[in-house]
Write a structure and sequence with these properties.
The chain has 267 residues and is α/β, with parallel strands linked by helices. The chain has 11 helices and 6 strands. The termini are far apart. Bound molecules: zinc ion.
């Protein structure tokens, strides 16, 4: 009987490849087994090339607020690019399965570089229960589940929760973003209590879809209170993404005086 079950499973696995051949998570083209994103899509998206995972622009960003060990991001975000489209898909177009496959891709890309060494759990950035209900899933949790599929670490959605969601962060400056998310997350149980139960996380990996100023992840890091933390996001935006014009630009564009730009003087 057991043998029959094994044969049924083999038969199904054989046929499922014919019926549902492995395809690229983004464009749907055929890919070899175990590959989530095809070479064409990888080539079309700008990558974040971090030479070190424990000393880079993101590590220095998070250092302001957390005992950071490693930080990484896979794709470079800029508006109106394929990466921006991909983020919109997993956030607004009900594509939880795409987010999970992108999580697997992230894990495969970074596993060999020691990204997950010493990590004891994956903690996705929580949404408020209302937002999660409205969206039907949390895209950061789907990314974390994809990472977990590859590296086998547990996904912990029970250590912190989101208390509120303010206005969209998109048009805010770094300082405003920090104020916007201050106190937005709270531990579900205090770190002291978790440690007393022997459940305290020593080195969680916090996961989100995109990092801009790092304000949300830093606020979550404060709520998680672990002695060491690492950070992973699918994409990373540059400062220009939420840039406010400088006073000089405002004066030039709204002042009474008409400014002539000296083209020759521009570099
Ligand atoms: Zn593709």
């Amino acid at each position: 009987m057991k043998e029959a079950g094994v044969w049924m499973k083999r038969l199904w696995l054989g046929w499922s490849h014919v019926l549902f051949p492995p395809s690229c998570a983004i464009c749907g083209t055929w890919v070899p087994e175990g590959v989530d994103v095809c070479e064409g899509c990888v080539a079309e998206m700008e990558r974040v090339r971090l030479s070190e995972l424990d000393d880079n622009v993101l590590v220095r960003l998070f250092m302001q607020a957390a005992p950071v060990v490693r930080a990484a991001s896979l794709l470079r975000y800029s508006p109106e690019t394929r990466v921006a489209g991909l983020l919109a898909e997993i956030k607004y177009r009900h594509r939880p399965e795409l987010a999970r496959r992108l999580g697997r891709w992230m894990a495969r890309e970074l596993e060999g570089r020691g990204m997950f060494r010493g990590i004891d759990a994956l903690v996705p950035l929580p949404l408020t229960p209302e937002r999660q209900k409205e969206r039907g899933y949390n895209q950061s949790e789907c990314l974390a589940r994809g990472v977990s599929d590859v590296v086998g670490l547990p996904v912990r959605t029970d250590v912190a929760r989101r208390l509120f969601f303010h206005t969209s962060q998109t048009m805010l400056s770094g300082e405003e973003r920090r104020a916007n998310v201050e106190g937005a997350f709270a531990p579900t149980v205090s770190y002291g209590e978790l440690c007393a139960r022997g459940e305290g996380l020593r080195h969680p990996l916090l996961i989100d879809d995109v990092v801009t100023t790092g304000a949300s992840l830093m606020a979550l890091a404060r709520a998680v209170e672990a002695p060491s933390l690492s950070f992973l996001t699918l994409a990373m935006a540059g400062a220009y993404h939420a840039r406010y014009p400088s006073d000089e630009e405002v004066r030039r564009e709204t002042g009474d005086e008409v400014t002539c730009v000296d083209v020759d003087g521009w570099q």
